[in-house]
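Sat 14:20. Reprocessing the chain from the morning session after the first attempt stalled halfway. Input below, unchanged.
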Amino acid sequence: MRIALIAHDDEKPEMVDWAREHESILAGNDIIGTGTTGGRLNDETALSVTRMESGPLGGDLVIGAEIVTGNCDAVVFFRDPMTAQPHEPDISALLRICDVRGVPLATNRASATALLTGLVDSGSAES
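Finished this time. Tokens:
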């Protein structure tokens, strides 16, 4: 499976912590991420994350394109619901394409854990 991991600035520590908690499962999959999130995950976990551009520089759209071409199977996007984002249209487009293409999307720690558990239980993700 190819799983995208994305986090807004205030959510990056939470993403790193969650990824560490689920590292054994995530490591058995192809992981992509937006620029800074991918960099932090590469630096602070044992995961190997293919980094796209930063979200504000088009990274969310690149991951959306990966979904459209069938190259992304799930998205974990820890969003900061309390802070306006300058690239909000790109974020909305990414969330919309997940819905259009039926790609599982988690936007917080609880839903991310449920998503990953569901993928493992279905045999889609490595355990």
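The chain is about 50% helix and 15% strand.
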